[in-house]
Design brief:
heterodimer; A: mainly alpha; flat; B: Rossmann fold; 6-stranded parallel sheet; 57% helix; 7% strand
Amino acid sequence: MNSSTLINGLFIFMLAGFIGFEVIRRVSPLLHTPLMSLTNALDAIAVVGAIVLVGEHKSTLSAVLGTLAVIAATSNIVGGFLITDRMLKMFKSSRPAAKS
Amino acid sequence: MNEFAAHQVVIEIIYLVASALFILSLKWMSSPTTARHGVWAGELGMLLAIGGTLLHHGIVEYKWIAIALVLGTVIGVPLGRVQMTAVPQRTALSHAFGALCVTLVGTAEFYLRSPDISRFMMSVLSMEVILGSLTFTGSLMAAGKLQEILPQRPLTYRGQNFVNFLLLAIAVVLAVCLVLHPEARQLYPFMLVIALAFGVLLVIPIGGADMPTVISLLNAYAGLSAAAMGFVLNNKLLIVAGALDGSSGLILSVIMSKAMNRSFTNVLFGAFGQVQASAVTGQEAKPVRSATAEEAAAILSAANKVVVVPGYGMAVAQAQHKVRELYDALGKRGVDVRFAIHPVAGRMPGHMNVLLAEADIPYDRLMDMDDINGDFPQTDVALVIGANDVTNPAARTDASSPIYGMPILDVDKAHTVMVIKRGMSPGFAGIDNPLYYLDNTLMLFGDAKAFVGSIVRELTGGGHS
């Protein structure tokens, strides 16, 4: 890696950090639990690095570690999106249908 | 442009779109009306990113990728279907899995690249692995405590902070050695093991009531380690996702630490759980007034405005569905019922809101501490169910109290306070609550679920429920 890719990476990190801060600051405390499970699922995007590691199969060690990593990340993706959606489905307003 | 470069451009563009979808996903989380779009945007971004990655030119072997994706799904589906009360431990477990993935990839990259590894690369790789492994074991510990496999009480010993800092310092020194001498591969396993041990020791002194802060902090660590992995792999999508997750965890940690009146440095250095050290004042001889379910029902039905203050005790007693029946019964009598949620109620940020939403209580009835505190003086009855320290007026008035300065729900300002509690034992932090001895406080002794159930029976008239 040369220094310009490093600087590019730092720029992206800085900008994404600020965007994250501004966007998440606006999330209502009502939804902090689903927020955390959603960011958890998004964070599991690390799976792409693990997929490349398995697919390139450069060494047995890297393939084994990569496979375990893909399993761990995929379970986060599937479980994270599933439970976030389940939680959000439960949040109902009293206005449309007051009581059932 | 050769075929190799063209592939790479396509993948980068897909990653760009996925990054945008991730940001939109979080933006839509700002309101319950759009939040589900957020999930869909996130899912779409994820699918695109995974699909794009499979186009990667270096991938020669698809079988194990497919097997791992299937196995991950098999593990993930049950983790997505846990009970809502178990969401905190599920979240801790998924922080652990995320961190595990990052640590494994970092380790594989180290052994593939060393000794031919630049200093900068080795620095971020060490950061990725140290953060990843301490988050992995720390989150496993947190999940174990929340699931009550491990003891919930904080374990403290003399010189604990010293030992912890020493371990972390050793891990950092090893990392520096590796940066300077990447050919010294034998140092790597030591760095890994020490960081893993540090994660365990970091969470040992933490008790259940501090879990919201810890989970948020581990969330931030998990995000940062993923961002570091993005630098190692030169993957911009990973940097973006890691930065988003990191800032989310950081914001939640700050909110939680403010709600518990801990300084942010206190949180950053993992020095939680110190409130427990303060002594319990064993004065239980003071008189309290208690009431029966019948009396409580009469007072509630005569009220105009009722505010329910739920705490983790409500979730432990599984009382939320009975609370919803109470909400309905009072609603039918024209009583205005709202819920006051303290930021650290429950075992993770926002946990109480999810439990009440699951019990079908409309979210516009759930109020933040700042929105409801001004209304307590106009409230006829504040009904405290399974909450203790977050209602303790000593936090406002008694400078010698260990929780002095912590923002609380001002329930004592309501005309009548009713507290459902098993007995007079002090709360988690071991602090006596003067609220119970006030003239306008009525203690309702009993199990939360059973007691709310009997109030509901009184209100709906007759013993049939």
